[in-house]
Amino acid sequence: MTLRALGVPTTLPELAPHERLIVALDLPDAAAARILAARLAPQVGAVKVGLELVNAAGPAIIEQLAADGARVFYDAKFHDIPNTVAGAVRQAARRGAWMLNVHASGGGAML
User: Fold this and answer.
1) CB-based contact 74:97 (threshold 8 Å)
2) 104 to each of 5, 74, 85, 90, 109, how far by Cα in Å?
3) What is the rounded CA–CA span in Å between residue 65 and residue 49?
4) CATH classification of 18-103, choosing from 3.40.50.11810, 1.10.10.10, 3.20.20.70, 3.30.70.3400?
5) What is the DSSP track for 68-101?
6) For the chain, which terminus, N or C, has the lower number of CB atoms within 10 Å?
């Protein structure tokens, strides 16, 4: 079955080219990440926060960046039993994550 058959849009919404850019904040320091995000805010649509930064700065970095006005892609690659992934995704969303990723091998129950 195709995405279109499922009713899922297959084209990007009308976005300015710079809004389609996501910059990786692959840094071990919250202050440096926030400074870089602020400097690049006018030129990018979102920032990516990965495990290095979250483990260095704590999950509050997601909240801080969101409070600063950034759209935050949390690149945690969630993969566990469905209940655990669901709980982790809820917490990431509560912290302000705009987008995140999961490993789909857990099947429909996990998604």
Assistant:
1) yes
2) 20, 16, 11, 17, 10
3) 9
4) 3.20.20.70
5) TT--EEEEEEE-S-HHHHHHHHHHHHHHTEEEEE
6) N
DSSP SS3 for 24: strand
What secondary structure does DSSP assign to 31-71, as a single string? HHHHHHHHHHGGG-SEEEEEHHHHHHH-THHHHHHHHTT--
**Cα–Cα distance, 43 to 98 (Å, whole number):** 18
> For residues 41 and 21, is the Cβ–Cβ distance under 8 A?
no
pLDDT score, position 1: 53
Active-site annotation, residues:
77
Stated pTM of the model: 0.84
In which residue are the tokens 């990018």 written? 44
The model's confidence at residue 2, banded by pLDDT at 50, 70 and 90, is: low
- For residues 48 and 70, what is the distance between their CA atoms, to the nearest angstrom? 10
